Amino acid sequence: MAHFAELIGLATVMGLAIFLSLPLVLRRSRTARLVNLLSAAAIGILIFLLADVWGNVSAILYPGGAFVADPSLMAIFVVGVLGAFFVLFSLEHASRGTRGPGEVSATTTALVVALAIGFQNLTEGMVLGASWAAGLSGLLAVLFAGFFLQNVTEGFPIAGPLLGTPERRAGLFSAYFLLGGAPTVLGAGVGYYWTSNALTVGFDALAIGTCLYAIIPMFRVAFRPAADAVESALRTRLTYVGIGLGFVLGLVVNAL
Fold first, then answer.
1. What is the predicted pLDDT for the residue at 25?
2. What is the pTM of this model?
3. Is residue 84 within 8 Å of 205, Cβ to Cβ?
């Protein structure tokens, strides 16, 4: 029991690392251009997370470098990605109300990103729990350091859609951050006692599907033209730079 309690404590620290970005995203003394840059960096981090999740799940779908995927696991993956995307689309469409076609509220987008990161952290927790149960102490140190640093950056994709809105409340951010980070603990508990390729593929598929759903409106907002042509061109350049910086940040953190 003490062994399991230590795992849960470690997973809690790892999952709650997402809150370390909270002071920065709550700061109100920032210019519109800085908000644009930070929002674009959030998109870059989210793109990296998509690539990272796909890298993890592809190793299971195509074992041993095979060119043909496992049919049953691929079916789970396809159903998970499409199911998550279209369920979210249907729910958003049903509750859209007076918003125009293609418009998604910033709060909803942030919530979907939090769900996507939560699914991803669930699978990371499962890896940690399975490694802990197997007694792989050397691997545990690497996993903890990597997942901890990655979780620190995951607050930005969640906060990104809300940075330029008046809805930047500490309680709202905290709830979304908890939704994104807490599944690490649940995954560690599940992975300690039981794990399977099908389960990992299923949750990774849900993470990819929700990420894809969230990233589309984030791109639309990021590249929305400003009223002034010069300001619009500058905003576009800042968006490209921010996306690149965010992707590189995710890559560097994951490599440490």
1. 76
2. 0.80
3. yes
